[in-house]
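User: I'm new to structure prediction. If I give you an amino acid sequence, what do you actually give back? Let's try with this one:
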Amino acid sequence: MWGTELHVYNFRRLPHAGIHIGRGCIIGEGNIIRGPGGVKIGDHVLTAPSVQILSSNHLYGNSEHPIMEQGVSAEGIVIEDGASWLDAHTHPQEVVLSSLHTGHHIPSRAGNKPFIAHWAATVDFLAKREAVKRFYDASTPDAEREGLLREHDVRYVYHGSNERALGSFEPSQVSYLEPLFASTDVTIYAVHLKSESTSTRPSTGG
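Assistant: Good question. You get back a string of structure tokens that encode the predicted 3D arrangement of the chain. For your 206 residues, that looks like this:
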């Protein structure tokens, strides 16, 4: 769109520099995308006007040295395409469980309630951060995962590159998660939990 600028001035020779924009994307007016640390945008992503996507930042933790002498951080940015599907097919009040990194973007790009996002906007942030790590850890018992989903009324589970980085749990292998959306990098699962109540017939005796 008009006034958008893409920059990949990799004078520091960072290894993951570059900008990748997927198919069917619309980048809003006046966006600035800087790719020294690497920017990857999935398919069918829409950005609002005047968005800035900056994949690197100056380090500033040492007050005794000028910022320009402290180097940079360049962790990169990945914007996956699952948020667009959530925006079009789910209700804003429905909770989505994901990694912390993904959760930061869910309210603005999908409109849903993230299980975890910015620490200042997340109740029991530290406990939820640990719970997310355990959820995506393959060694965690399914009963623990189901309990977490039930306790927080989670309706969808997001599984992309940020979630795979947390652990090797494979959601497609469990009966309580149903895949509803899949792309190259992301799968979104609906949560289907069995009722906790079990019906029992009274003993009639003989």
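You can read the tokens as a compact description of the fold. Here is one thing that stands out. The mean pLDDT is 88.
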